[in-house]
Amino acid sequence: MIRHGEQWRRFRSKVQRPILQPQTVKKYVAPIEMVTEDFIKYMEKARDENGDLPHEFDNDIHRWSLECIGRVALDTRLGCLSPDLTSDSETQRIIDAAKFALRNVAVLELKAPYWRYIPTPLWTRYVNNMNFFVELCSKYINEALERLKTKKVTSENDLSLLERVLRSEGDPKIATVMALDLILVGIDTISMAVCSILYQAATRLKQQEKMAEEIRRVLPDPSKPLSYSDLDKLHYTKAFVREVFRMYSTVIGNGRTLQEDDVICGYHIPKGVQVVFPTIVTGNMSQFVSDPEEFKPERWLENDGRLHPFASLPYGFGARICLGRRFADLEIQILLAKV
């Protein structure tokens, strides 16, 4: 999970092709739609007498996100949307562990690394969290491996993402790391993004109505199953999401450790220094965006050359771009289309 350089590159090369292919993502429209429909039913039951959702609704969003990612990365429904989920249940432990891991990895990486010499409390808890994740993923991946042994396969299209990785690599460890990557990064990041998107939609009635009109036009029959091609036509809805990411970036930026000395904007930066591309700042700078303080999804639909392509960069860029970005976009689009 924290490999760099050649070790990271070897792993990435083994899983990148099946994950990033659009054809792979298309297979998960129906499964994620099913999860999202269950989530909507869950939300309807969770409303109080005034029609309001509970204060801990953000945790419910995490549960939806985990259920979606579990279906993709582990080939299973984890039961996250069960109404009687307890604080000590496996599902809630996954959510809590993912939050802890993602929100503390920067502390371990950027602050004084005492944990390299002594097992600090933070490091010990982090290791225990990761061990829990590995055990969990291994359980479901071994089950998928056993199913694959008896599955009749005529083409790659018959295989899920997990099955493709298991079949091509033959190493459950590769599949485990892939699942860890998708789950750990996906649960918290997607959940916080969705909370922000829903809040902006709820407080911006003009843009909300434009999205609703587009969804009604592209998807006139709510009972008809969603298709990838229909979701691709939701241009304004996708522009709304990009504008939320621009103004209210879910993460502060993208960090990289320089592998060699470099000169950036006239500054000499030595090898080993952490460099951050602060998307939460650059997305709101007038030299990259016209009228950056104005919330205007239409700017992403115009081709006037005045908008820098990096003004919204939620998934990074280049070789280390987010592995699960296509699935993240798919989950968000399906939720907005169904809600």
UniProtKB/TrEMBL annotation:
Q: SUPFAM superfamilies attached here?
A: Cytochrome P450
- Cite the entry's keywords alphabetically: Heme, Iron, Metal-binding, Monooxygenase, Oxidoreductase
Molecular function (GO) terms for this protein are: heme binding; iron ion binding; monooxygenase activity; oxidoreductase activity, acting on paired donors, with incorporation or reduction of molecular oxygen
Q: Name one Pfam family in it.
A: p450
Q: Which family does it belong to?
A: Belongs to the cytochrome P450 family.
Job description of the protein: May be involved in the metabolism of insect hormones and in the breakdown of synthetic insecticides.
Q: What name appears for this protein in its UniProt entry? A: Cytochrome p450
Source organism: Spodoptera exigua
